[in-house]
Amino acid sequence: MGTVNYADLAHQIVATVGGEANITAGTHCATRLRLTLRDEAKADTAAVQKLPGVITVMKAGGQYQIVIGNNVPKVYEELTRFTRLGSDDAAPVDTPKGNLLNRFIQLISAIIQPILWPLAGAGLFKAFLSLATNLHWLDAESTTYAILNASADAIFYFLPIFLALTAAKRFRANQMTAMAIAGALVYPAVVALASATTPVTFFGLPVVMMSYTSSVIPIIIAVWLQGYLERFLSKVLPDAIRNFTTPLITLVVMVPLVLLTVGPLTTYAAKGISAGVNAIFTFAPWLGGAIMGGFWQVFVLFGLHWGFVPIMMNDLATQGYTLLGGPLVAAVLAQAAATFAVFVRTRSAKRREVAGPAALSGMLAGITEPAIYGVNLPLKLPFYFGIAGGAVGGAIAAAGGSANNAFVFPSLLGLPAYMAVGDFTLQLIGSGVAVVIALVLTLVFGPREEKDAPEAAPGDASASTAVVAPTGETVVVAPVAGTSVPLAEINDKVFASGAMGQGLGILPTDGRVVAPVSGTVIAATRTGHAFGITSDDGVEVLVHIGIDTVQMKGEGFTSQVTRGQRVEQGDVLALVDLDAVEKAGFDPTVVTIVTNSASLGAVSAVTGRTVAAGDPALLITVGASVEVNA
Question: Which of 315-319, 413-417, 557-561 is predicted with the least confidence, judged by mean pLDDT?
Fold first, then answer.
């Protein structure tokens, strides 16, 4: 296919199909850019087919399908940079699928991802500052400390502004307006209202205030709603005034709306939870400790921890200590220990680069944002193991009456604040148990990520890695049980023509789809209907479950693997509800294509017979070694 500049290709596609005004919606599947056009007659199909990087064009199911191959996500990404594709009008392909919890975790992780490195660096900076002040190398009252602390703490304090930028990209909202909304939430005068002694009102409406500094969820909700409001305004406002009235109306509506809704909901929930936990401490301290130790990081994630802060501060002022703080050391250290276990266990260099400093800043300074958002929450199991360790360790610490007599970040450096009240030995034991539980569980049961897949350079059509195709024979097994049929009989013109490569189809009798070769997953759609695998000997295989099943948007499909993961022949790729596919009116044929077959040699298919998953299906006979792009 040669070298393709994806940005140029994206612009050329839009131009040749009649311009953006002719595109009403768009998405992509494993190999095709799928556009819905207002008038297909305006599309110059012959010109589209001649574009470098385009294999062919077909029209089916009311869609104008441009077949590009494995690199279609790169073209789609470029399209979203200068068109409205990917907004609500064209359901973005990267919308998280699965149950509500998984979708929430994927969403938060995606929004946090762009600022992970600054978070990790700033967290480490704060850890070293805490160490310096604890060892009296630096006076915490000095102007030098004030300047350094501002440098380290700013990204955490103003976290909503950073998240506004990344969330706006995710929700296709105006980035500058989103940052203005976040800026209002952390504006000094608004922050001061959270501790005001007089009632706060907005045109007579009572406003229950909370501190939005360092918060995560409120700004994400705000930007999500902002996207809807802006798209509505863009449709109803006249062109002459739209550019300045859209942000004007958005700011007038969104800032009060967040303060009037998110603040009260969060505050009331936080106060209710904190009052309940505080009551539990009076008759069952170990239970209160288990709740605080286990769920403290969850409370922080939703901003509910602010409900505990006034109680803690009041306890410190009236009795000189607070029992609510006793279990928090275990909570923080458990999450940091799980992060360290990921650092030891993972084969992903990118993950390890985040996990190392994140674990250190969590242990030393109690700064867990890089650990939670960059490592534990995206991988899920380490986060759960951290909760388990924190719950057990927190229960032990609380059973000993552990409490802090100063307001400190729960961490190793903050331990001196826990020495004066309660049994300090049990505090140490509880913290140690929390670390051991989270560390061991993550080391034994945590995800073992594979090495990062090579990334293509901008504008490069390949993965920038030359491999030598093997000589001899390679066997590709059937990915599913059923009846094998020749490629030409598949009910899809592109697959049937062999334009994507040689292969076969299988009419499935079972919904268990397995890897036809051993190798690395180079593509895995979020909808769970298509997977690309590069085998250990350089064979590139596409497994496409059903025809046009991308339109099911993941319903009935449960993916079992992710991009970059190592799979062995026979490992489960996906579980498919075949009844759901047929009820939706789609052909369930599982297509297996060797996408680089033209560079390898002859491909013979075993067709016209019943096969079981794992039976030989394709035989690739390779001639002399040739260099191909992988």
Answer: 315-319
β-pairing, 587-594 with 540-547?
antiparallel
Averaged pLDDT for residues 593-605: 79
CB 434 within 8 Å of CB 333: yes
Residues in CB range of 539: below 8 A, 6 or more apart? 470, 474, 476, 517, 519, 594, 596, 600, 620
Separation CA 480–CA 557 (nearest Å): 14
- CA angle in degrees (0–180, nearest 5) for 141-146-151: 155
483 close to 491: Cβ distance less than 8 angstroms:
no
3-class state of residue 310 by DSSP? helix
pLDDT at 50 over 90: no
Q: How far apart are CA 54 and CA 69, in angstroms?
A: 8
Convert the pLDDT of each residue in 259-315 to its tens digit: 998 778 877 777 777 778 778 888 889 998 999 999 988 887 776 776 677 677 667
> Torsion angle of alpha carbons 164, 170, 172, 173, nearest 10°?
-10
Q: Is 87 exposed, middle or buried (0-12, 13-18, 19+ CB in 10 A)?
A: middle
From residue 590, give the alpha-carbon distance in Å to each of 137, 480, 531: 66, 8, 11
Dig out the tokens for 525 from the structure.
């759609």
What domains can you pick out in the chain, each with its CATH number? 6-90 (3.30.1360.60), 284-449 (no CATH), 466-629 (2.70.70.10)
**Residues 380-409: tens digit of each pLDDT:** 899 999 999 999 999 999 999 998 887 777
Which one, of 521, 556, 571, lies nearest residue 542 by Cα?
A: 521
| Rounded Cα distance, 177 and 486, in Å | 55
The answer on pLDDT for 574 being more than 80 is yes
- pLDDT band of 60, cuts 50, 70, 90: low
Taking alpha carbons only, the member of 284, 330, 285, 328 closest to residue 308 is 328
pTM over 0.70, yes/no: no
Side-chain half-sphere exposure of 25, counting CA atoms within 13 A: 11
304 DSSP 8-state letter:
G
End-to-end CA distance of the chain: 12
> Which residues are the active-site residues?
29, 544
The confidence band for 622, taking pLDDT boundaries of 50, 70 and 90, is low
How far is residue 232's CA from residue 102's CA, in Å, rounded to a whole number?
Answer: 29
Look over the chain and give the mean of its residue pLDDT values, rounded to a whole number: 82
